[in-house]
Amino acid sequence: MSSNWSAKTGSEGLTRPDWDAIRLEFPALHQSVNGCPLAYFDHAATSQKPRRVINAMTHYYQSDNANVHRGVHNLSQRATTVYEAARTKTARFLGAADSSEIIFTSGTTASINLVAQSWGNAHLKPGDEVLVTGLEHHANLVPWQMACTRTGARLKIVPVNERGEVSTEAVSEMLTSGTRMFAFCWISNALGTINPAQEWVEMARKRGITTLIDAAQVVAHKPINLQEIGCDFLCFSAHKMMGPTGTGVLYGIKSVLETLDPVFGGGDMIDEVSYERSTWADLPYRLEAGTPNISGVIGLSAAIDFLESIGWASILERESELLSYALEKLRNIPRIRFIGEPKLRSGVISFIADGVHPYDLGTLLDEQGIALRTGHHCAQPLMRHFGISGTCRVSLALYNNHEEIDRLDLAIRSALRLITNVDK
Ligand code: PMP
Fold first, then answer.
1. Average pLDDT value over all residues in the chain
2. Are residues 15 and 83 in the same domain?
3. Confidence of residue 225 (pLDDT cuts 50, 70, 90)
4. CB 185 less than 6 A from any atom of ligand 1
5. Are both 211 and 290 inside the same structural domain?
6. How far is the CA of 177 from the centre of ligand 1 (A)?
7. Where among 274, 308, 342 does a domain terminate?
8. What is the pTM for the complete model shown?
9. Residue 1 pLDDT greater than 50, yes or no
10. Do residues 10 and 93 both lie within one domain?
């Protein structure tokens, strides 16, 4: 899709998006925090939203607001049309074979829980194994612990090395004849490690093992082609890709989704209901009980348009350039130690400063208008692996710029000086 952003021509004659103009699309970025301009480095927790997304949701509430699938009246039909158009767009965005393979959920956590409960109940039995990696967000760990407790299956964890990577050899060794499910994050939210998703799925599929990819940290940063990846399930949240909170996607191959019983019963997911029993609607509706997050799905659709209007080649180039710049700056700050040095990484940098609690550093940075995340990043076992309770995490997005990274560098240096002087 061609860019609708006024393009700048680079020195090599390539046209590039005008990143300053794109940044202006994000109203929340243009404010002061504690008297300083906001520098937002917490994209991995949730992204800021462009006007296009905010306006699409406002337009729905102002003009089309009605429940979907249930009305003959004009507004309901309009709402249904935009809701279902968003499903078709999401299927195309991901390269799904059919739009009925797209289930709208409230987010990655809900998507993974749906699979762990429904697929888990149908397919796991005592002695079976579920494999996850040591890099997982709690959202791709706890639901599998619960599924294993319910079914008697065993949860196995592929270890993480000191660089914050999971080796393909270790995965291969742990995918045994007893493994039924291999569920892994494509990109780690805590360290930024990029896993070789396609290779891992291929290995698992050859052995007849079902795969689930947690793509929460992928969707705003890399294009996804499900036909190439070949996974059975893939999950993500709209709010990490410039879309709204409370909306997400569960993708599943149709033949696999068809084996799932609904976890929630109620309106919209049925075919016939009597007082005694009910039958289910076809996919995708039988896994979407109740009124869905209609405005959220409309926001997701606008977020897809927004990302595609910039183009993946430009996004990849921009984010890789910002990451290199930030890594170089932060690496040169005395007392800073990176947690995780994966060879393949996305725009996430986790670090600690010797002798300084991440919360103290985070608080001092906030005083200078700099927003980064501190803590365990919903990956407590991974933090334990590194012998720490948490890190400071800088996460970058296409709307960040060099000036902000320069400010981050100076702010960390001055915060560390201040802490050192107080400690003396
Ligand atoms: N997995 C990963 C890798 C994540 O980064 C997150 C969010 N931090 C989640 C799962 C959970 O996403 P949500 O809270 O939107 O359900």
1. 96
2. no
3. very high
4. yes
5. yes
6. 30
7. 308
8. 0.96
9. no
10. no
> Does 20 share its domain with 107?
no
| 33 and 146 fall within a common domain | no
CA 182 from centroid of its chain's CA atoms? 18
pLDDT per residue over 4-35, tens digit each?
676 666 555 567 899 999 999 999 999 999 99
Q: What is the CATH number of the domain that holds 180?
A: 3.40.640.10
Q: Is 109 in the pocket of ligand 1 (CB under 6 A)?
A: yes
Comparing CA positions, the residue from 416, 301, 357, 379 lying closest to residue 44 is 379
The burial of 295, by beta-carbon neighbours within 10 Å (0-12 exposed, 13-18 middle, 19 or more buried), is given as: buried
Say which DSSP state 243 is in: S
Q: How many domains does the chain have?
A: 2
Domain boundary (286, 308, 330) is at 308
Kindly report, residue by residue over 47-60, the tens digit of the pLDDT.
999 999 999 999 99
- 304 φ, ψ to 5°? -60, -45
Per-residue model confidence as pLDDT tens digits over 197-220 = 999 999 999 999 999 999 999 999
**Alpha-carbon distance 111 to 104, whole Å?**
8
What is the domain range of residue 191? Answer: 54-308
Contact 116, 181 (CB under 8 A): no
Distance from the alpha carbon of residue 140 to the mean position of ligand 1, in angstroms: 9
Whether the CB-CB separation of 400 and 41 falls below 8 Å is answered with: yes
Q: Say yes or no: 325 and 276 in one domain.
A: no
**Claim to verify: residue 124 and residue 93 sit in the same structural domain:** yes
The DSSP element (H or E) to which 181 belongs, if any, is strand 179-185
Round to whole Å and give the CA distance between 123 and 117.
10
Q: Which atom of ligand 1 is nearest to the CA of 139?
A: 10
Query: What share of the chain has pLDDT > 70, as a percent?
Result: 96
For residue 74, the CA-to-ligand 1 centroid distance in Å is: 37
Q: What is the model's pLDDT at position 2?
A: 42
pLDDT at 28: 98
CATH code for position 399:
3.90.1150.10
DSSP state of 287: G
Whole-number Å distance between alpha carbons of 45 and 288: 25
